[in-house]
Amino acid sequence: MKKRVLTVFLAGVLAIGVLAGCGSKDKGEDSKAESGIDSGSDSKVITVAASATPHAEILEEAKGLLEKEGYDLEVTVFNDYVQPNEVVESGEFDANYFQHVPYLDSFNEEKGTHLVDAGKIHYEPFGIYPGTKKSLDELESGDTIAVPNDTTNEARALLLLQDNGVITLKDGAGLNATVNDIEENPKDIKIEELEAAQVSRVVDEVAFVVLNGNYALEAGYSVKSDAIAYEKSDSEAAKTYVNIIAVKEGNEDNEGIQALVKVLKSDEIKEFIDEKYNGAVIAFEE
Questions:
Q1: Are 78 and 13 in contact (CB under 8 A)?
Q2: 79-127, pLDDT tens digit by residue?
Q3: Gap between the Cα atoms of 71 and 129, Å rounded
């Protein structure tokens, strides 16, 4: 059976830190006209839907730099992986910042949306973190490891487990791997598939968890000090899963979007990322 690509988002996830005026905008074209990113006004508004950590934090740091360019950046935090794309597709928001290209491609294919990559900003190394056990050498038959259940992130988690000798995947499974592609599982490890935001919450119930970088940060983990293993900067997965600014097709050349991407790729933001996240988030270099 083909694995469901996208999971149902959590109830009540919408609104942490919504900035003034964001929720009162009209929908569609009226909202876009009000945002003013194409206008010649002195202060032009760019609305961005983002995950809390690190995306919204990076955007908050970028606000001052964008103000110097004449733009007012409004950031709304979402806690799921569905609504941020829906609000950009509908025109409620100008852009979002939470996902990588493989996830965006899967979303477009399943939902019929028209979202494109407007700029590659950073990547977050996937890591294996301790649960009830502290070393992979302690794994025993029947132990459970929790992983994200959306297709692209599950594949990434499984590839990391393979790299560390826990399982072996079928040849060619690659970035589309699911639990059905596990060819060898010598210790009969159970892979528990959970919505990405839920994985860190079962840390006391499973042997290990494999976390997205942003959810590891939110759970208080440090990649360098807490992860048992993590993706290296030169790995294929790290390069593939660069987090992007996504917009609706046709808006990627908008002056406001280009200004946003330029600031997010600036030396000032790269320095902020390096200092704040200590390797858990790494600025992307073209």
A1: yes
A2: 999 999 999 999 999 999 999 998 999 999 999 999 999 999 998 889 9
A3: 40
d(CA 102, CA 107): 9
Give pLDDT < 70 ranges for the chain: 1-43, 233-235
Q: What is the pTM of this model?
A: 0.66
What does the block give as tokens for 95? 């852009």
Residue 85 and residue 103 in contact, taking contact as beta carbons nearer than 8 Å: no
- Neighbour tally for 227: CB within 10 Å: 23
Helix and strand tally (H, E) in the chain? 10, 13
On the question of a cis peptide bond just before residue 84, with omega within 30 degrees of 0, the verdict is no
Structural domain contains residue 10: no
124, exposed or middle or buried, with CB in 10 Å at 0-12, 13-18, 19+? buried
Alpha carbon distance 48, 60 (integer Å) = 11
Tell me the chain's radius of gyration from C-alpha atoms: 19
Q: Are 158 and 220 in the same domain?
A: yes
Same domain, 117 and 154: no
User: What is the number of alpha carbons within 13 Å of residue 7 lying toward its C-beta?
Assistant: 19
**The total number of structural domains that make up the chain:** 2
How many residues make up the chain in this entry? 286
